[in-house]
Design a protein that fits this description.
Strand content: 35-45%
Number of strands: 28
Helix content: under 10%
Distance between the termini: 58 Å
Largest sheet: 11 strands, parallel
Structural class: mainly beta
Shape: flat
Number of helices: 1
Order of helices and strands: EEEEEHEEEEEEEEEEEEEEEEEEEEEEE
Length: 335
């Protein structure tokens, strides 16, 4: 047995583990799984440790495999990384995900999945490609999530009356997709609605980001309010604020002046301590950089139903066969 706090290696696993007195409540229902959390036979638990902030997928799925589904292992690695406050490294592995209904949910702000040139093959000729509801492989259900250096591909032409996205981000802020490849995605049955998307972004105008307590107001020469806040999280230019104590009067962020100072065009004065609700006004601030989109026979590479996004240094080839299909479909402003 080893003392709590000891770093060890565990037979038949990869990585460095640390002996702890208990399992991890947020992972695997608080139980050992024999992979990331291993009982040591002395009522303690060896817990897989991150390296430079990343959990390595090789601990869960050590070999390249493009024919056997590894979605359970990827989901376990994601769950474990989020539970301990780490990120996920796919370690350049070749991976196969068979089911159209598989979704990898990311629910932690600032989470990073780096591929190191990993390849994810999503579906083949034996896959089940029926069902209802919107389908997506990665769902970015948190702010500031990064997907980096992964090659996504498919071997099957879908034939379902549903929209399919490789990566989806709905009503969350600042997703970053970079150095990725999206290849061979098509869904002729849903041609009128673009069929397949590589990336799908959307954000409602009335999505609430946060509620802030307002400090005392000081007007500048233009009549705008300059206020100081210790936390500017969720505040960006053009975003809408509603002052709840003033019959929901609307105000807009005019500029971010420093790490703590912001200028807002409040229409009327208010008392210190009143509250304002911060809305997105449709701004999502996504960044798509250095990505390749190839062979979307019946599909759209990037579906952009939000504002304030940036696409730079990307490559598009063989995208779309019908008028509803685009390299980039934009239904928003300030992109």
């Amino acid at each position: 047995s080893f003392a709590v706090g000891t770093l060890v290696t565990v037979q038949n696993t990869s990585g460095i583990y640390k002996i702890e007195a208990s399992a991890i409540a947020q992972y695997n229902s608080g139980n050992a799984d024999g992979v990331a959390v291993v009982e040591d036979g002395n009522s303690n638990y060896a817990q897989l440790q991150p390296i430079n902030g990343f959990i390595n997928l090789s601990a869960f799925s050590p070999n390249n495999n493009l024919t056997t589904d590894v979605s359970v292992k990827i989901n376990s690695a994601l769950e474990y990384a989020e539970a301990i406050g780490a990120n996920l490294d796919l370690n350049g592995l070749d991976l196969f995900v068979q089911s159209l209904s598989t979704t990898f949910e990311i629910n932690t702000n600032n989470f990073v999945v780096k591929g190191n040139d990993a390849r994810i093959r999503w579906m083949d000729a034996t896959s089940t490609v029926t069902g209802s509801g919107i389908k997506y492989l990665f769902n970015l259900n948190a702010d500031s999530v990064t997907i980096d250096n992964i090659n996504f591909e498919s071997d099957v032409v879908l034939n379902i009356n549903e929209s399919v996205s490789v990566i989806r981000c709905f009503e969350k802020q600042r997703p970053i997709i970079k150095n990725c490849t999206f290849k061979n995605f098509s869904n002729p049955a849903y041609r009128a609605n673009a069929g397949c998307f590589g990336l799908s972004f959307s954000n409602n105008h009335n999505t609430v980001l946060r509620t802030i307590t307002l400090p005392a107001i000081t007007r500048d020469g233009n009549g705008d309010a300059q206020i100081t806040l210790t936390d500017l999280t969720g505040l960006y230019e053009y975003q809408q604020l509603i002052i709840t104590s003033q019959s929901n009067a609307k105000a807009y962020v005019k500029s971010i002046d420093s790490e703590t100072e912001v200028t807002i065009n409040f229409p009327a004065d208010y008392s210190a301590g009143e509250t304002a609700v911060v809305y997105t006004r449709g701004f999502q601030n996504a960044l798509v950089e250095k990505c390749d989109f190839i062979n979307f026979g019946d599909g759209t590479a990037i579906d952009m139903l939000s504002n304030g996004n940036t696409v730079k240094d990307c490559y598009f080839k063989n995208i779309g066969l019908a008028v509803q299909e685009h390299a980039i479909y934009v239904k928003g402003g300030d992109n």
